[in-house]
């Protein structure tokens, strides 16, 4: 019975400690998550603009790029939204 009470006391102490740590870190985690989402939106916007510029350049100066060169470089970023196979 004594070991059970000791185990319960240790678990209670650990749960209280974990709760305090979670409260301390949850605010930082939420702000960093918002920052990352904002950065992703900014980068998506930038890459969209770059793709549009590349397409306009290829349409305006078709002789400047060898055949197929633009299609290879249009977007080489991996899709982070889709799960990996």
Could you characterize what this model shows?
The chain is rod-shaped, with a radius of gyration of 26 Å. The chain has two helices and no strands. It has one domain (2-73). By secondary structure, it is mainly α. The protein starts with a helix and ends in a 12-residue tail after the last helix.
Counting DSSP E segments of at least 2 residues, the number of strands comes to 0
Number of domains: 1
Shape annotation: rod-shaped
**Which bin fits the share of residues in helices?**
over 70%
Mean model confidence by pLDDT: 86
Separation, N- and C-terminal Cα atoms: 51 Å
Low-confidence segments: none
Please describe the biggest sheet, giving its number of strands, its sense, and whether it closes into a barrel.
none
Radius of gyration, whole Å: 26 Å
Assembly of the depicted chains: single chain
Specify the number of helices. Answer: 2
Strand content: under 5%
Structural class: mainly alpha
InterPro entries: KXD1-like, KxDL_dom
Protein name: KxDL domain-containing protein
Domain KxDL: 2-65
Pfam families: KxDL
Keywords for this structure?
mainly alpha
In short:
By secondary structure, the chain is mainly alpha-helical.
Write the layout of secondary structure elements.
Blueprint lengths: L1 H59 L8 H5 L12
